[in-house]
Amino acid sequence: MIKLTITIPKHEVCSEYEKLVTNYCKSLPVPGFRRGKVPKAVLEKKFGDTLRGETLSSLLENASDTIFDDPQFPQNDRPLSYSDPVIEKQPVLDLNNDLVFSLLYDVFPQVNLGKWQGFEVEVPDVSVTEEDIHEELERIRERNAVVQDKNDGDSAAKGDVVTINYAELTGAGEVEAGSERQDFVFTLGSGHNLFKFDEDIIGMKKGETRTVEKTYPESFEYEELAGKTKNIRISLTALKEKLFPVLDDDFAQDVDEKYHTLDELKNSIRQRLTKDLEKHLRNLKLTSLLDKIMETTPVDLPESMIRYQLEIQWKNLAHQMNMPADVLTTRFTKANADELFDQWRPDTRKSLQGRLIMNTLIEELGFTASDEEKKAHIAYIAATNGSSTEEVVAHYNKEGERDYLEDEIKEQKLFERLLAENHVKLGNKKNYFEFIRK
Is residue 113 assigned to a domain? Predict the structure, then answer.
């Protein structure tokens, strides 16, 4: 935050006041006087406080606008676009003295880089294995499974799709008010239910009802059930099984006509998983190095910058929920919204600090993006995404996207430089999906 003290000389104060009074003498209707013939003394006696107040407002506004519009005013001392200057203490207009007042406002934070070379960070030793490819293949197989009704009299088994009605019961065997749930569908064994009663349903037949007693540990993932015992009545109303396709060339062709054999599908999966792994490892390396650099480079972030970023996250949340931001605001109490902002704040601060450090490093190291580098980057994106260069160019030509192409190239250069100036070592081996989903 900056405190900017402004002094307006007495003669300018008096000149502004006289101009205002003269204009009102000519235009203001006052009983007993013809328009334009009101004596200055009469006007001052009748409207003195109002005249001084209006003069003061005009002087304050014009002075701040003049200063910030001046191209000679230091760029680093200009207020952030979302930080309106406020007057520290409202001054009083005195025609016998200079007008002195102070503005308070946030400015773009300055970053004094600390150590950014010679660090060592560790990332897990992860690779794409045949087991990972098989696991992904099974997911695709799961998505292509056919679901059909099981025969009457068949029992529910792990992997079946069940439809149930359930309710909590009181000690007297009555239904707890508000606990009933109708037509709840899930896959047995997935654990996608509040009460975790998968095992209790296995063996049931369609049309069967049973009451189960469930005792939950103190460490149970759902707080409302932790340490409690519940009696739950479950009725199985529908029972379906999944028929999985055979993993062969026909299956590969059903997934996408561009595949002719199962091996082609597997190779495509391998390439996709490898690309995702490289992206995640790159992000982890960069994040780990930035964490180290941030320890040596504290940044004093203005509150308005943090708040502005939090409001962007709020708008993004509203977009994800497919509603306007003001509608989302009405769904939350102020206390709940403030609690959510408090949860977001630490990560927001860290993200802003990291971004400012990266921008400072890019500037100090003099990274640029040439036209040839832009063309190469566009060609790489097109090849990676399976799109044409024209489509990529059209994307970056959109309003709000034009600067991203250059930024991406500069950031890539910075990342390569950070890798060259620091050491990344491999840690313990980790499963691919365990790493990706973390």
Answer: no
Q: For residue 273, how many other CB atoms are within 10 A of its CB?
A: 20
- Give the CATH number, domain containing residue 58: 3.30.70.1050
Give exposure, 27-60, as e/b (b: 16+ Cβ within 10 Å): eeebeeeeeeebeeeebbeebeeebbebbbeebb
> Looking at residue 187, which CATH number applies to its domain?
3.10.50.40
Angle between helices 130-143 and 262-296 (to 10 degrees): 110
Residue 10: left if φ>0, alpha if ψ -120 to 50, beta else—which one?
alpha
pTM of the model: 0.72
Helix (H, G, I), strand (E, B) or coil at 47: helix
- For residue 155, what are the β-bridge partners? 205
My answer on whether 270 and 413 are in the same domain is: yes
Non-local (6+) Cβ contacts of 149 within 8 A are 238, 239, 240
Query: Same structural domain for residues 305 and 280?
Result: yes
Which structural domain, as residue segments, surrounds residue 40? 2-105
Strands (E), 106-144: 120-125
The residue type at 179: S
42-93 pLDDT per residue, tens: 888 888 889 999 999 999 989 888 998 899 999 889 999 888 899 999 998 9
Q: Clarify whether residues 233 and 311 are in a common domain.
A: no
Q: What pLDDT, on the 0 to 100 scale, is given for residue 399? A: 61
Q: How much helix, strand and coil, in percent to the nearest 5, is found in the chain? A: 50, 15, 35
CA distance linking residue 216 with residue 225, whole number of Å: 6
- Kindly state the DSSP code that residue 199 receives in the 8-state scheme: H
Same domain, 191 and 96: no
Residues 72, 179, single domain; the answer is no
Phi, psi of 186 (to 5 degrees): -160, 170
In whole angstroms, what is the distance from residue 114 CA to residue 63 CA?
38
Last residue of a domain, one of 44, 73, 105: 105
**Chosen domain end from 82, 105, 128:** 105
- Residues 433 and 276: their CA atoms lie apart, in Å, by 11
